[in-house]
Please model this.
Amino acid sequence: MSEIELVSESKLPTKYGKFSIYAFKEHNKEHIAIAKGEFKNKKVTVRIHSKCLTGDTFRSLRCDCGEQLEKSLIFIGKHGGVLVYLDQEGRGIGLSNKIKAYALQDKGMDTIEANECLGFDGDVRDYGAAVEILSALKISSIVLMTNNPKKMDAMSRGGISVERMPLKVKPNEFNEGYIETKRLKSGHLA
Ligand SMILES: [Zn+2]
Model:
């Protein structure tokens, strides 16, 4: 049974183009989908992005979230598609825990070691919500902008037909280690 409910939608003009925005509720979480162009019952370009306040809003260079978000919005703004923005900050551990993990990383741990040191799995994100949101928007076939094989698997398991489009960003001096850890420890593709 679906735990996710579409509660509201409106137009959203942005610097990347004119989008529609959809707000979904899942218990105390609020997920968003931003869409451009016709997408119902079509093969749709999709980005599934997990919320990252420091990267998305403050443009932190510790991760590549801000840059991936911007690239996705530019692409979708030009070619159409859907960005699903999941309310799961800090790989699912929440904002203050993420900052705690940053402090441990400042002492030399990598992303996964730091999360594990705080008592979490290396990555506790869950993409079930994205499957439900896509289904609610009548999307069953997607080209997913991602380097993360877990997202591909989650879509297939959820019954969504999925092809991959790589989403490359250039590492900077602060996130080189973070990107390398994703590649080595989480099987991320370039
Ligand atoms: Zn981030």
User: Anything to note?
Assistant: Residues 52, 55, 63, 65 surround zinc ion (CB under 6 Å). The chain has one domain: 5-88+125-186.
